[in-house]
């Protein structure tokens, strides 16, 4: 009896981590990649399991870059990405003879957050964010941004270098992809970033909006001024483009060879059919009709 309980525990643990990196067998599908896309994927997988109990779908969230490495290596069929595929990844796919399709599944606004007890900072400009996050930044304490703010060290939390959110944020805010100060707490697990910010009064962090949406009572959202006034990310401001420059599309990349398998084709179709509803429930913005039509053409092609 004890042995059976141990077996169940091991199986459950392996299911949670997704068994990514081990390849896939018949009637199984492996997904990894962006932690920002992961909540959508997780919700889709849960619903798909109800309709297709004979297909085992496992999902992980090692970051866009980490997922792409596994995708190119052939360890997974689908990679979630919070940025478009990079040129070096395209070249790696060509070298490995990996053909793929790109499908847009949602739109996201990056959330800049502080501790809910922070009563001095309600908004930041892009210039201030750049000064905070740039390499060799001179900003150490809150008063370095505004003399009226506390003379306390800013504890920074943000995605790690394998994250597409990291790539996007550094390019749009710092002005150079991958350029960032090195004295911050980094993780591809956004839940760890949430925990860090909510547990320290002087913390500041950023990650996908869904993780703020799921932790509204534990975090305070900061408005960002991109030049036309301070705006907070909401479904409306992300959709109409007023939350700039921290709005971006989210993707899944699918290996063409995997699409020849009926269970993969069926899952991808299910993903596209349900992504809009899942995105809204999670706090993301559904894709436009034009993007949906493009997905259809891509999938048929």
Give structural notes.
- The protein has helices at 2-17, 38-51, 64-73, 87-95, 126-133, 164-174, 190-198, 209-213, 235-239, 256-259, 262-282, 289-300, and strands at residues 28-33, 56-59, 78-81, 100-114, 123-125, 155-158, 185-186, 203-208, 220-225, 230-231, 247-255.
- With 301 residues, the protein is of the alpha/beta class.
- The protein folds into two domains: 16-106 and 249-300, D-Maltodextrin-Binding Protein, domain 2, CATH 3.40.190.10; 109-247, Periplasmic binding protein-like II (D-Maltodextrin-Binding Protein, domain 2, 3-Layer(aba) Sandwich), CATH 3.40.190.10.
- The longest helix has 21 residues, at 262-282.
- The model is unreliable at 1-24 (pLDDT under 50).
Report a brief summary of the structure:
By secondary structure, the chain is of the alpha/beta class. It is built from twelve helices and eleven strands.
Strand and helix map with partners:
Blueprint: H1 2-17, E1 28-33, H2 38-51, E2 56-59, H3 64-73, E3 78-81, H4 87-95, E4 100-114, E5 123-125, H5 126-133, E6 155-158, H6 164-174, E7 185-186, H7 190-198, E8 203-208, H8 209-213, E9 220-225, E10 230-231, H9 235-239, E11 247-255, H10 256-259, H11 262-282, H12 289-300
Parallel strand pairs: 1-2, 1-3, 5-9, 6-7, 6-8
Antiparallel strand pairs: 3-11, 4-8, 4-9, 4-11, 9-10
Helix pairs in contact: 2-11
What string, H for helix and E for strand, traces the elements in order? HEHEHEHEEHEHEHEHEEHEHHH
Count of DSSP-assigned helices: 12
- CATH architecture field of the largest domain: 3-Layer(aba) Sandwich
Q: Please state the structural category.
A: alpha/beta
Query: What is the CATH top level name of the largest domain?
Result: Alpha Beta
User: What's the count of strands?
Assistant: 11
Sheet having the most strands: 11 strands, mixed
Unreliable segments of 5+ consecutive residues:
1-24
Shape: elongated
- Report the mean per-residue pLDDT as an integer: 90
CATH topology heading of the largest domain = D-Maltodextrin-Binding Protein, domain 2
Strand content: 15-25%
Number of domains: 2
CATH superfamily of the largest domain: Periplasmic binding protein-like II
Q: How much helix is in the residues?
A: 40-55%
Radius of gyration equals 20 Å
What distance separates the N and C termini? 52 Å
